[in-house]
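User: Run a structure prediction on this.
Assistant: Running it now.
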Amino acid sequence: MARLRQRIAAIDSKFAARHTSVPADSAPALVSSAEADLEPLCARKKGARWFIEEWSHGEVVRNDFGEHFQTERLFARHKRHGSADIGELAELPHDLLDAVGENEIPAVPPNRWAFLDTETTGLAGGGGAYAFLIGVGRITHEGFRVRQFLMREYVEEGSLLAALESHLADFDVLITYNGKTYDQPLLEARYRTAWRKPPFARLHHLDLLHGARRLWKLRLEGCRLVQLEQEILGVEREGDLPGELIPHFYFDYLRTREAQHLVPILHHNAIDILTLACLTAIVPAAFRSTDSESLSKVGVRRGEELAGLARWLLASDENEPALELFRRAVNAGLPDPLLFRSLWDIALLEKKLKRPQAALQVFTELAGCRNEYRARALEELAKYYEHEENNCSLALEFTEQALRFDNSAALERRRARLEKRLSKPRRPL
C-alpha cells in the first residue's frame, strides 16, 4: 500500500503542478498535439477546493433525473495519433466492420459508430461497481470527438445514465474493447439497478478485442489496449495514469472534492477511446482483404500477423487462402516455435487438399530437424509410404525413427503391424 500511495502522490503532484504553475488570470494557451487537446482551462483556486467545472472545458448538464458534468474534446482531423491519421477515420468504408463482426454488423457510415469506454470504481460485476465516467467517441468531418459523462457523486448516476441513453440514440453500432465482457454488462446492471431499460439492445456491438487477439497474439505478449497503442500505433503516453489507479483517484476526489484527481482520469479515458478508433481502422481491414497490398496499407506485414490471419481463415474452412497466408508468413520470417507450427499446418493443408507430394516435402523438412512436430511428421511419412507407395520397409524405418521421439502406443501398434506384413513370405510372381 505504501508503494501505491507513492505512485498516486507522484501522478497527483504532476497534474497539480501543471495547472498551479500558470497564473490564474492568464489566458489558456493553445496546443497542437492530439494529447494536448485534453489540457483543461486553468481556473482560480477556491479555498482548498478546485471544481471540475473550472478545470475542464464542459458544463453541468441538468435533466429530469438530476445533474451531472459533461465535457467534449475534438481531436482535429489534421492531427495524428502515432502512425494513425485522424482525418482518414471519416473515409473508412461503411461495410468495414462486418469482416470481424460475424456478419452481424450492418453497413452504416462511420459517423454512426459509437466508440465507448468506461472508468469504474472497481472490477466487481453486477451492481457492485459504478461507471463514474463514460466516454463516447464519434467520427466527424472535423475530426474525432469524445464526449465524456462524469458522475461527480453517486447521486448523479440517474442523470448520467439518462444522458448516455439520449446520446446513443444517434448511433447504430457500438464499438468497445472487451466491452461485451465488461463495459456493457456493467452498464446494463446499472440501468437495471435504476429501474431503467438498458439502451444497448438495438445497437450492433463489435468488441474489437477478439479481432485484435487473432491478429496480434502471436506477435505480442499481450493485447491490452495500451500495449497495442505502443506496439502498433507507436504512441508512448507520458505521465499517463495507470488504469489500476483510477478507482483510487476517484475515491480521493470523492473525499476531497479536489478536481485535480479527476483530470488525469479524463485524459486517460479520452486517449483510450481515440486509440480504440484508430485500431478499428486496422483490425477489420486486415480481415477484410488479405492480399499483400491491402495488408501493407494498414501496416500488417509481420510473419506473426500473417500467421494469425491464416489461423482465422483455417478455422473458417477457407483452406486455400489460409495456405497462402501460412506460406507468406514463413517467407516473412517467424520465431522457431511458430515456424514449425506453421510448417505443420501447411503440410496438413496440402494433404487435405489432395496434394500429397507438396505435403510430403514439408513433412520431410519437419522430420529432418529437432522440433515438437518431428515424431508426428515421421509418422505421416510412414503412413504415406505404407498406403500410397506400398513400401512397408521404408514405412517401418520411419516408424522406428518416430518411436525414438515418441514412444506412443499408436506407433508401437504401427510397428507391430508393419513387421507382421514384412514377415509374411511374398507370393511368387
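Strands lie at 59-63, 66-76, 80-81, 84-85, 113-120, 131-139, 143-150, 173-176, 204-207.
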